[in-house]
Amino acid sequence: MQYKDITVLVCDDSILMRKKTKDMFISLGCENFIEAADGRAAVDLYKQKHPHLVLMDIVMPVLNGVDSATEILEFDNDAKIIMVSSVGTRKYIQQAMLAGAEQFLQKPIKREKAEQILQEVLNGGS
Amino acid sequence: MLTQIFGDFLLRSSMTTVEEMKNALLQFLRARQSVGDIAIDSCYMSYEQALEIQNMQMSVDLPFGELAVDLCYLTFKQLDDILERQMQGHILLSRILFKDKEKRKAVLEEFFKEIGIKSEKALKCSDVIKCSIIEEWLNIDGISDCVLSYILLLFKNLTRFFGGDFVLLKPKTQELNCEWHAEQEVKGEICVKIMFDMPENMLKIFAARFMNESCYEAGEIAQASIADFLNLQNGMFAVTMSNEYNIELDVTPPIVVLENKYYESSTLIELPILYNFGEAIIRIQVD
Q1: A-B interface: how many C-beta pairs under 8 angstroms?
Q2: Is the Cβ pair A86, B211 closer than 8 Å?
Q3: Does the interface ipTM go beyond 0.90?
Q4: Which pLDDT does position A57 carry in this prediction?
Q5: Which of B221, B225, B238 lies nearest to residue A89, judging by beta carbons?
Q6: pTM score, whole prediction
Q7: How far is Cα B119 from Cα B202, in angstroms, rounded to an integer?
Q8: Per-residue H/E/C for B11-44
Q9: Integer Cα distance of B61 and B59 in angstroms
């Protein structure tokens, strides 16, 4: 598998953030994306499409990122979920980790970090 | 921040007109170089390194130069050189508006007298002093230190992400006719609601500045850039409160409101900001 074969679910209520995140991963060679504007849509899309990687914002309408990650992991315990947020407080980071997210990243995602995450997907773990 | 309050001081004391100020702000924009610009021009840093630091500033409230030194992109000597070459904003604005040296000197002295600091201290004005200047300038009783910190952070972020070529105006009574606005709330021990209104003709310029790319349409992406700016501001504030004061806050999703709304101005802190291309307004509601 190569980066171009990885399907990334980008979940963020900001259309601009989704675009920026996609642009970054496209520049690294990714080609397959699914987009969700809230946590509920992310859960539904995950169940339908089984993406390799989920980049999940925390503060979102309808269903927040922490609850969304919890639901996804209940459905698929092997889901690779990275929480990405502007609100990197201890409380939010703790909630994300308790929900089962693999990592918490502060927005915007750094290119090296994105590459590292993709490499982990290819290697099949963290 | 001093530049923006200096602009307001000049307008209120009728030393300049709004039109003259708008022209001066345009010249200011062309003449003023950021620390990053000077670092690149001097070949101290690459464009990519400057961009990396700009991205870092989306989550950390630290000056560009400090981050550059931390990352070893600049030495202390190089940073000193840059700061020496970078003219302070209020001095640049005074040079643009007042050709006569004596007049300029007198105006600046009067300004510093009004805000209660000595001019030579302005360069290394601490956040505490800046907060007290804001408090004095707003002239509203009962604003907590946390809210003053919030407003100071807002000024810094406006400058960092949209540019410092604006003047903070005293609140007016008339409503701006805005077709939409972005808003977001911070909840918890400190409750703040922030609303950012601007006419659509300004939106494209704001969005382009925030995204660092051209923006041809005042559409969804442009509106999202303003909502993202609020998210960045409130996220940074929540992190500061969590790390420095052990106060945990919740942040609601930012929303774009596509309708004219009436605000009860007595419950709000209104911060109108004047650019050469128009006037926007930021409203902060504190509970």
Answers
A1: 62
A2: no
A3: no
A4: 95
A5: B238
A6: 0.88
A7: 33
A8: HHCCCCCHHHHHHHHHHHHHHCCCHHHHHHHCCC
A9: 7
